[in-house]
Each structure stands twice: as structure tokens, then as C-alpha cells.
Amino acid sequence: MTTILVIEDESHVREILSELLTTEKFDVLTADNGELGYQMAQRQQPDLILCDIMMPELDGYGVLSQLKDNPATDNIPFIFLSAKADRLDFRVGMDLGADDYLTKPFTRDELLTAVRMRLKKQAVLSQRHHEQLLRTQSHYQQQLEQAKERLNQVLSQDQLTGLLNQLRLRQEFERFLKQLQPLDASSLVPLVCVGVERLREINAELGYSSGDHCLQVLAQRLQGFFAQDSPLMARLNGNEFVLVLPPVSSRYQAQEQIQALFHHLSQPISLSQGDIVLQVNLGIAFYPRDAQQLDPLLQHSQQARQKAQSSGGTAVEVYSGALSGDRGDRLALERDLRSALENPERRDELLLVYQPQINLNNGEICGVEALMRWHHPQRGSIPPNRFIPIAEESDLIIPLGEWVLETACRQAQIWDAQGLPPLRVAVNLSARQFEDPQLYQRLAQILRRFNRKPESLELELTETCLVRDPDTSVRILNQLKALGISIAIDDFGTGFSSLSYLQRFPFDMLKIDRCFVAAIHRHRKNAIITEAVIEMAHKIGLTAIAEGIETPEERACLQELSCDRGQGYFFHRPLPAIELGELLRSS
User: Fold this and answer.
1) Is the confidence at residue 498, as pLDDT, over 50?
2) Dist CA 341 CA 296 (whole Å)
């Protein structure tokens, strides 16, 4: 029922209005003054208000002003009742927001016509308002759905590459497996982890935009390689991608495909600063052979990838159960190695030994190579090829390498103080150390701290770590050369691009690997290769050093081929610092 509030201070007028409106089936409320009428309007929210203007204390204008100031009542239709017919009074009321004006005395028809017209108009306005509200709600709902869609996209998609993220991968992996059911008993579903090396160095040296571009190019190459039969692809974190491939009948079939993918991903990437080649490592695990849930499959594929990374030239590795046990052991060794580095009480577990380098023309000691050893309190002696890869994988290689440089320079300072002849000390530098942006500053500080001349230090690098990014390698090598440090290329001939880079890189020494030296007097092919390497080294101004000399025949053959220096067990095994000092005195 429609409710009408009558605010009138004259009782007989109020009663007439109430009776007339009640007869017309309206629900009528009455108030005999303006203040009470305003309060009733707030509480009852009538559909229309009839209000006298001339009332004591709070007149009609005051009631309307208060109603309009209140959001709860400002839309209630309002009709003034007044005995004044002055146009100015009409103007004041309309300016305040009145909807109509009735002049006393008015007829029954005039009153009902004004009321009904006002209520009808209010109904139309309410309908329009309702429709507008519905349109607004619909618009907001549409915007909300779009926002939800964008949010879902953000939550399920890697924003840099457009690939799935790890959260969405979990959902899609379960759906993917359901689509394969029933899976043939001999079928295997490969899950491949793709790791990108050197991303941190690219960000540091070339900027994050270059690193982002490299990741985007790799994502595009992944999608392009599998264009016809696209697998699930996701970016796990900063430098890892994961692929879930369609079933294969054997692991060898998957390996062939992934090996081809490796070569596809290893193509140079063009940047504004020049071309760069990213090193990628891939690990493969198989559903359901290795695990039937995503998390252990991811873990196994990552273990296989890390195995490929630590194996040097191996780019693709397949998970085997032995890796899990090996992983647990590696974590234990990592903890112990970190403790030996950081805990002064355990520092004596780490030590350097020094293998003399001999001038093959006169037999004199002309330098030493510093080699690291670790004597574990429970495990005994742990070989470098066991703990060095762990250090590289866990980022311990930076502090460990710095410890080696400091220890070698400190020991050389001690030998100088003992009056022993000056020696050039050679230290192996890992790829991670070489790519460390702080390498130059660290070396300069160490040389100053131990009062060493730069030419007394030689850094040995493998060609594998240099050819990852030749342009950057040349720049870093030139910085080290400018400092006065000698550079040697280690294990020469065991990589894949030695000859093409020899002239480009500013080396001083070329170390011939043991694989060419072994039984060189009996293997003509080895002798021919070694002779060619020595001759080439001399022609471009490098000193040739042969590693792993173990017999007098090997020494004699190398001397005949004009090799400059040699080292190996034929001359001396690696010696502790004290024993080497005694050897130098006796020499």
C-alpha cells in the first residue's frame, strides 16, 4: 500500500486530508509540526509527503531542506500546501526541490490529481532508476568477469613468455594424463626440465631486458620446435622450463628428440650488444616409470638436468634411481663443504698442494700449479672431481675459488720471505668464477693484500668455459691481461672449438692434455697432433706445457718436439707447501 505523510499544524486540515486520502486507499501518516514530520519521514520512508509551509519552529522550507540533505530521504516526492499564492513563494519552494505546489483552498480532485501524478512520475523514475541500476550492475559484472579472467590469466600464465606457470601446469598435467588413459603398458610419458645457464651474468652485464629477451626467444623456440604436436610447456622459475611430451615407446626415442631440441635451443641469440649463445642443460624423467605424481617427476628431471650440468659436455641426461641416492649424498657433501669453508675450526680440512712445472730444456722448476684437496673428518680424502661440481652447483665455488687464490698468494708470500726463488703460481679458475662480475676487483685486492706482482699469478681456464660467450670472454681476458696476470688455456684439444678461438683469445700458455701425452712415443697419431699443437703455439707466441708426464720416454719425446714445460708424476707428485719449500731449497 502507498504511504503518504501529511505534515500540517492545523488539526482540521490535517484530519480532512487524512480522511480524504484514506478513502482513496492510501496509508496515511500525520504530523502536527515540522520537526516531528522530519523524524517520521526518516523512520517510515513514505512514498510521498504533503507539507504545509507556514508552521512554527520548523516551517515547510526547513523540513524540505533537511530532507534533501539526508541521502535516505532526498528522493521522496514532496508537495507544498500553502495559503500563499505568491510567485516568489513558488520559486523558493521549487528551488529547494519541491515537486509540486497546491494553494489552499484546493479541491478534492486537485489534491488527488497532484498526488497521483506525482506518484506516477515517481514510479517512472523508480523504474528508470531500477533499469539503470541493472545496467550498471551488468556493466560492473562484466568488468568483474573480465577482471577475473585477467587475474586467472595472471595466476595461470607466465607473463614474460606466455607459457603456463607452475600452478596451471599442475592442473593441466592431471587433465593431460586423464586424456591418455588407458596408457599402454610399454608407453612412457617424458617430462623434460630445460635449464638455462648464465642468465644471472647476462642480467648483470647486459641488463634485465637482455635476459628477458633471451628467455622469450627460448620460449618461442620451444613452441616452434613442437609446432605440430605441441606438448605442455611451462616456465618453472627464473631459468627453468618444463615440457610434458606425448607418450613414447622407449626412452631412446625421447632422447633422440630431446637431443635435437638441445641443438635447436643452442643457436645464437641476437641482442643489441651482439650475438650470444646460452648454455642449456636438459634432464628427462618418465611417467609412470620414475614416478606417478608431478612433484617427484619434476624433482627427478631436475636432478637429471643438474647431472648433465655437472658432467661438463653432456647436454641431455636421463634420470636413474642412482641419482636420488647420489643427490642425498651430494646435499650432505654440500653441507659439509660449506661448514669447512665457513667454520674456522674445520678450515684445516681444506688445503692446497703444489705440483711443480719443469723447464724441459734445463730441468729447473719454473712454476707450480696449486691444486685443492679436501680431507673430510669421516669420509677421508674426497677427490676434486667429486666436490668441485657440487661447489659449482651450489654457488660455493665463488668463496671456494677466492679461498684458493688467497691461500696460494699467501703461500707464495711465505716462500718469498723464506728467501726461496720466485715462482709463478698457477690457479685453476672455474667457469662460474670467470663469469663473476667481481672477479677483477677480487684479484686486484688479493694481489695487493699479499704484495704479489700480477705476473707471478697464472690463471688456468678451460676452453669450454670460454666459448660459452666468446665476446664477453675476450673482454674479461683483456681486463685480466691489463692487470698483468698470465692466462693459460687448460686441457687443450679436449673441447670442440680450440683452433677457431686460439688466435682470438689473449693467452700466454697452452696446456696439452694428458690424453695426447700418454704413451706419445708409441702412438704416432698422438705424436703428430702434439707436434702440430706445439708448433702452432710457438708461432702465435704461446708457451707449450704438457700435463701428466709419467715416464722418461714421454719426457724425452716431448723434449724432442720442443715442448717448453712439463708437469706430472715423472717429475713430482703434488706436494704440500712445506715439502715444496724443502724441494726448492735442495734444488
Assistant:
1) no
2) 32
